[in-house]
Specification:
Elements (H helix, E strand, L loop, with lengths): L1 E5 L8 H14 L5 E5 L27 H12 L2 H14 L3 E4 L9 H8 L3 E5 L13 E2 L2 E2 L9 H4 L9 H17 L7 E4 L2 H10 L5 E3 L18 E4 L8 H10 L6 E4 L5 H7 L4 E4 L3 H9 L3 E4 L9 H8 L4 E4 L4 H4 L6 E4 L4 H12 L2 H18 L2 H16 L2
Helix pairs in contact: 3-4, 8-13, 11-14
Length: 402
């Protein structure tokens, strides 16, 4: 069976690419499957036999003149070059299934119809809320909102300036959403893959008739093991308000117990944390063994998000090392963290409630160990790469009628 993997970046770039490249390699090494690629040209790209079909690099962060801005705006909604090259690739390679990942803006959803036109089965993995919310994150001024309350119209979202507080960017996002709604681009997806039940519900708010299958993210359980309790709490991720980092720093200052808080990552609230919470250990960006060792030896990992996390890799990684997770009760996190069993949930933004949960773990090392063991078991049984692979391959066979 021939699977065409489609993603706008063909190198490690973010969470979507981590899953995309992981799945691509997994399927490539599965007997009876052949993998082909479609993406965007970039100097960091991994090797691909189909690189001649890749579209020109599109960087929307660069400065553009008026004429260039008009072209960029058009390509943002419908990339004609991507459509032409994609169609030529399909004609030449004849894939059975096209698996779309992160295609928005650079490749555009216009290519979905081309796959259907040539008889391919289509899958789209929803790494973010783009299908439900044109601005990706369901955020207005850094706060989450419920798309079910926007009266079903993408145009109504424009007035909220939901994309970076910019009228022009929000208007362009609205135009894009209306265009693909009228073209019924997403209606040409045979199966959406949602990494969480919460993501499934969000897709259903916009596409109630869509076929959505929940397949959670996974990691290789054979490469991790239960670590030690090094006596510190840990946060890994972007330092931004919607990630709940200021709430975590405040909660740490409210704790009765004296337990260090280590914070990994960079972002816009870093200076605020440095200024107002000097007891927080800001370690910046780490990767590789240095990163994994600091996760492996934490007492617990905190995921204090105040926005709709999908299927948090931070939670899964923590579980893989036998770490309890204290997470915000929002988005997909409650599906991952079993409250009172593998960790604790707390009301997003409630620093005192978070502090109370941390104090419980700080004063009860046996509970930390017990929760960690259960977290590791849950990860192996539900969030391992073996489980992910089985469910994905089963979906391919089901779509292909085999």
């Amino acid at each position: 069976m021939k699977i065409l993997f489609v993603n706008k970046f063909f190198f490690p770039h973010g969470g979507a690419e981590t899953v995309f490249l992981q799945e691509r390699e997994m399927v490539k090494n599965t007997e009876g499957f052949e993998v082909i690629d479609f993406s965007m040209k970039h100097e960091k790209n991994l090797p691909s036999e189909q690189s001649e079909y890749f579209v020109d690099n599109v960087d929307y962060n660069n400065e553009h003149g008026l004429k260039s801005k008009l072209k960029v705006s058009r390509d943002f909604i419908h990339n004609q070059q991507a459509c032409e090259k994609f169609e030529q690739l399909i004609i030449n390679e004849k894939p059975d299934i096209v698996h779309f990942h992160n295609i928005y803006h650079q490749l555009t959803p216009s290519i979905i119809k081309i796959a259907k036109k040539h008889g391919c089965k289509t899958i789209l993995t929803a790494h973010d809320y783009k299908v439900a919310c044109p601005g990706y994150g369901c955020l207005i001024d850094g706060k989450v909102f419920d798309v079910k309350n926007i009266n079903g119209s993408f145009v109504n979202l424009f007035k909220y300036q939901w994309h970076e507080g910019s009228w022009s960017k929000s208007f362009l996002m609205s135009c894009e959403a209306v265009f693909h709604s009228l073209k019924k681009s997403y209606e040409n997806i045979d199966t959406f893959v949602a990494p969480s039940a919460f993501m499934k519900s969000m897709i259903k708010t916009r596409l109630p008739d869509a076929n959505v299958q929940v397949i959670v993210n996974g990691i290789d359980a054979s490469k991790t093991e239960i670590g030690e309790d090094g006596g510190y709490f840990l946060y890994c991720g972007r330092l931004s308000p919607e990630k709940g980092v200021p709430t975590l720093a405040k909660a740490h200052s409210l704790m009765k117990a004296d337990v260090p808080l280590k914070v990994l990552g960079n972002g816009p609230v870093k200076e605020l944390i440095e200024r107002e919470y000097p007891n927080v250990e800001l370690l910046g960006f780490l990767q590789g063994d240095e990163l994994f060792n600091i996760i492996k030896n934490a007492k617990a990992v905190i995921v204090p998000s105040e926005w709709y996390e999908n299927c948090s890799m931070s939670v899964i990684e923590a579980m893989s090392y036998g770490k309890p997770v204290v997470g915000g009760n929002i988005g997909g996190i409650p599906e991952q963290v079993l409250d009172g069993e593998t960790g604790f949930l707390f009301e997003p933004g409630n620093a005192q409630q978070l502090a109370d949960k941390l104090d419980i773990l700080a004063s009860n090392p046996e509970l930390v160990k017990e929760m960690g063991v259960k977290a590791r078991e849950r990860m192996v049984n539900k969030y391992s790469l073996d489980v992910h692979k089985h469910e994905l391959i089963s979906l391919y066979y089901s779509l292909a009628g085999k």
